[in-house]
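Listing 4. Sequential folding, example run.
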Amino acid sequence: MGRARRARRIAQTAAFGGGVGVAGLGAIGALSYGVLRVEAALTRRIVGQRFEAPPVDAGRYGSGSGEPIRIVVLGDSTAAGLGAEHPHETIGATIANGVAAFSGRPVEVTNAAVVGAESPGLESQLDRALAETPAPDVALLLIGANDVTHRIDRSVAVRHLEMTVRRLRESGAEVVVGTCPDLGAVEPVPQPLRWLARRWSRDLAAAQTVAVVEAGGRAVSIGDMLGPVFSADPKTMFSEDRFHPSAAGYARVAAALLPSVSAALDLFGERTTPTRPSPQRGEGIGPVAQAATRAVAHPGTEVAPAEIAGQSRGRQGRWAVLLHRMRPAVPVSTADPQPVSHGPIAGTETPATPATTADTVDTVDTARDPGSIEGRMPSREDAPTR
């Protein structure tokens, strides 16, 4: 079963309140599961001791005029900033400073993230955040890693994330979700755990993306954003425990999220003149499950709700726009090229009439256009990754 189909199935099961097994372990078997438990125990010995607590980054940033922009941060240790030495080094603080600079207004941060949090704990975090900030302008969520490492049922995790996004949207807040990072990129994790962690985390990230877009939010792929840089300079990008990001690592993640947060707040007028997907960069509009599958392999990719010819859904589900808002900072191997497209996302439907919205792309017959994503990428969605 391809990743897009798995993502749809997990999200659909989540919507109906069912389950698909503990983190998808049923197909692995008891023997393999026993090996994983041993590998996980070894990993815990390799990874350094946890920090006592993350820095407290709640407060006001920037010194502009006007009403402050209210940002709520929810999630796990990454959202809390565990591994950063100072409050201004967290993802929330870095994004707040960026938003303040772009908008010319002060920014108020409310951080309700909890170290070790799993997706089922998001609602209690949201309750605390809304009690302090009843009407946030934008919410930033980073969640998923503990759902994988603690073997939380993926459909359960996705259901709680979707409910949280819907509550935030109902409160009037824009929502940006940093999806589950690729845990296979964490160097201290041994094989075969790394291979399985990569598959589980990417499957969860794809399902999260589908659920977030269906709920009206924007999903941004974190993927293996720190993986290549970790290999080149682990002392700089990761903190002392070799697992949580350092200040430099958090800055890199924040750089991927800031453009989407800025767009959600309409700091650059995208509501009036939406960003037009660039086929040359592999961007386009298509079914959300296929966009989600593309996004997990390319960190910094945003997937958001979209329309084609005034319609929000097609035969394969919700339309979504895929944008590579962040350019790769690490050279890409020629053996693993970035996809280049001159048309919509591979496998998308061609509307009966040309798209009329400003953020859609011209339709192309991908079977005849060798420059399309479909023409450049393997046909299997779940092809082995490097």
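-- end of first protein; second protein begins --
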Amino acid sequence: MSLPLSRERMLERMLAADPAYDGHFITGVISTGIYCLPSCRARKPKPENVVFHDSPRSARCAGLRPCLRCRPDDFYAGIHAEEARVEGLAALFRSSPAAIRNVAHLASVAGVSTSKLHELFRLHFHLPPAEWLARHRVAAARRLLLTSPRSVADIAFGVGFESLSAFGEQFRRWSGLTPGAYRRLPQEQVLRLTLPAGYPVAAILRDLGRDPQSLTSRVTGDTYTAALRLPSGPLAVRVEFGSGTATCTPVLPPDQSGVDGAEVDWGALHEILLRRLGLTADPGRFEAHVAPHPDLAPLLAGRRGLRLPLVADLFDGLLWAILGQQITFSLVCTLRRRLVRSAGREVGGGLWVPPSPEAVAALDEPALLALGLTRARAAALLNAARQVAGGRLSLDTLAAGTATRAERTLLGLPGIGPWSAQYVMLRALGFQDCLPLGDAALARELQHFFALDSRPDRQQTAALMGRFAPHRSLATLHFWHRFQTRKEMPHDHHSTAPADPGPDLSEPAPR
């Protein structure tokens, strides 16, 4: 093994976590048995425990294994090097939010220009870095407000906000509550979200109630009721929309009546409601992107403020994607209701909690075939459920990570193709620049919107939707809503394709 640098120089650059030296040498840590890139932001080892190698292969031959944080094998493969870089930045930020002062500092730490940083975050997180920082600072603050006795001011500065006014503004923007109101949730037992100006209550309720026979939720007037699966147990919640507010009241199952409200996982409930009501993303950037273009601006007509409601439960989103391949919307709703009755849990009032991965994993193929699933769909669902239940697939990790890794991981699941992967990323994981190619409702509405002679194929769909990047998830929702209001869902096609070539019918909106 021949290394081009002295040990002293490599130690210096390793301690500085200098990304400019990635690819020049590998840091091996004999005390942990791990090898890393020089830029790795994990806690630095003592110099006497460090050995250097010229390649990952050399490190592996010495009995070391790759670091899961900086992912040196990915870097040396040359395929996911930039992905590994932004994942390292995210890990550093989450371990110490106050360590990153602002976007310029983040770019400096990454060893790239601010323009390159914006490019990386758009590709891997589908967000501008400033918004990513603000959202994650607020998320860190929320965790501390419910678990720490520290003052609001101490928490605000501890997660990296430079002023209390900025903290309050960003907290309200991404939480729908003030920091004080959020901290009081366990005592008040009612969650009153302040809705953004122009929040489209009617459109959101229409989306939430697309399956009028749903067992897991229902819409009655201006009230949305849903059964949820929280870490603290199953729970029904009633959301009443008023003037600029959504009042959310837990409705405990009969076997939990009389329990102290403090036992409700308020942090998890709040996060689910933000997702379900479309409050995890701001449509303002999308609308500003579309409005100046005369041929695109009509998409906003009557739909300004439209937001993307995410599925409440990540596994339920994966379930919807698998059930929804190549069948009509009405049929996927029917299959899901059967599965809910078979593997879900009733919580009273005719509401059922969606099936957990463990409950689905406990089923077998004959049981799923009896519900009406095809053999291929049953196999794909069982495989996904068993991977999640067994801890081999973490949907929470995918949602918190990069879009590129999420897509690659989902495509690695048997029976999951490009449409299903993009659908899960769009409706469950919440990435904002997803495109479910092959979705017929989207293609049909593109044909109508752009006055095309024929329905666009995948290549043409990609080109047309490219004009909406990096906001293609919300653009897709706008086209779906246009399609739904323009004509009834079709019910004339049913394919039992073993894999996912992309559905040939309308998008199965998850509940």
